[in-house]
Amino acid sequence: MDEFERFAKKASDVFYGMVRKSGEFVENTKVTYNINLEKDKIIKLQNKIGAKIYKIYKDGGEYPEAFAEDLKAMSEIEDNIKTMEKNLNEKRAYTICPECSSKLGPNNVYCPTCGTKQGPTSTDQSTNE
Fold first, then answer.
1. How high does pLDDT run on average in the chain?
2. CA distances from 55 to 3, 24, 46 (A)
3. How much of the chain, in percent, has pLDDT values that exceed 70?
4. Collapsed DSSP state (helix, strand, coil) of residue 117
5. d(CA 86, CA 73)
6. pLDDT at position 125 over 70
7. CA 6 → CA 1, 10, 12, 88, distances in Å?
């Protein structure tokens, strides 16, 4: 084998080695992607389970005692959010529907998103400032 043939064989071996490695890389990337998709599914299911347990708690139903502390903390956080939203809304010309959290104009009697009747509304507060 002359020098050129040895060089060509070496270059060919390197090329096919790179092709094999890039194929392995692509396959590993696909598997990693699919693993992450499955992990996302688990997280979504965990959130769904948590939401169901929280709803049971809020509706006064029975829930596992192991969740009591976390459920109470969630409820307190939810109350804090409502208080902050109320304070913020007092500074705005619109309110937030307590049922679906849609923005409401100052004259909305019913929420245009969920249809919930709204409580007494104040006048446009931007004119009161």
1. 86
2. 78, 47, 14
3. 89
4. strand
5. 20
6. no
7. 7, 6, 10, 77
Angle between helix axes 3-58 and 68-90 (nearest 10 degrees) is 80
Q: Where are the domains of the chain?
A: 3-91
Q: What is the pLDDT of residues 51-71, one digit of tens each?
A: 999 999 999 999 999 999 999
Distance CA 42, CA 47 (A): 9
Nearest to 102 by CA among 114, 120, 118: 114
pTM for this predicted structure: 0.51
Cα torsion for 115, 119, 125, 126, to the nearest 10°? Answer: -10
DSSP state of 103: E
Strands (E), 1-129: 95-96, 103-104
Q: Identify the band that residue 17 occupies on the pLDDT scale cut at 50, 70 and 90.
A: confident
The residue behind tokens 């347990």 is: 53
Tokens found for residue 48: 């769904």
SS3 content of the chain, % helix, strand, coil (to 5): 65, 5, 30
Q: Name the DSSP class of 95.
A: E
